[in-house]
Amino acid sequence: SRAQDTWTQKADFGGGAIAGAVGFSINDKGYVGAFGTAAFWQYDPASDIWTQMADFGGGSRGNAVGFCIGSKGYLGTGSSNISPYLAKDFWEYDPINDLWSQKADLYGPARYCAVGFSIGTKGYIGTGYGVEDYLSDFWEYDPASNSWIQKADFGGAARHRAVAFS
Predict the structure, then answer these.
(1) Apex CA 44: angle with CA 40 and CA 50, to 5°?
(2) C-alpha distances out from residue 131 to 40, 65, 120, Å
(3) Torsion angle defined by CA atoms of residues 72, 152, 138 and 123, in that order, rounded to the nearest 10 degrees
(4) Left, alpha or beta for 42 (phi > 0: left; psi -120 to 50: alpha)?
(5) pLDDT on residue 75
(6) pTM beyond 0.90
(7) Would you list the DSSP string of the chain?
(8) Which of 38, 46, 144, 155 registers the highest number of CB atoms within 10 A of its CB?
(9) Per residue in 28-77, pLDDT tens?
(10) What is the pLDDT of residues 102-136, one digit of tens each?
(11) Structure confidence at residue 1 as a pLDDT band (50, 70, 90)
């Protein structure tokens, strides 16, 4: 019997219906943004409340990558409804000061629907769809030096819309 495996309804997302969302978690809170808007939202599971935070510094963005390193959130790549449509910019979110700061652009090509995750003190972005084709490259971000290093390409076929967790 798996009676303990149940879903519990929580407060609806504060930003309304969304698509192409991106998110990350920092400590005990979740953060979500979506395509077509720069608005970013925080979810506090302890109070079951959504709160609108500072707009994402990179403007309207969807199909981006988000992850957390330590006490900061990171968001980059993706697509927008303004030119250029594919992005390679990268941003850091400080939840204490509710502030976005632009960091070093991803050294690889602009892309959307990439995959991203963090392990320890480093973040990783790879795969996705570039200007003309699917990608298999992978990059490591070091927040201490604000720099990117190319890693070995993803071992499988080039792809987009992959999923990762750590």
Answers:
(1) 45
(2) 27, 17, 31
(3) 0
(4) beta
(5) 96
(6) yes
(7) --TT------PPPTT-S-SS-EEEEETTEEEEE-TT---EEEEETTTTEEEEESPPTT-S-BS-EEEEETTEEEEE--B-SSSS-BB--EEEEETTTTEEEEEPPPSS--BBS-EEEEETTEEEEE--B-SSSBB--EEEEETTTTEEEEEPPPSS--BSS-----
(8) 38
(9) 999 999 777 889 999 999 999 999 999 999 988 889 999 999 999 999 99
(10) 999 999 999 999 999 999 999 999 999 998 899 99
(11) low
Q: Which residue type does 25 have?
A: S
And the tokens for 123?
């973040």
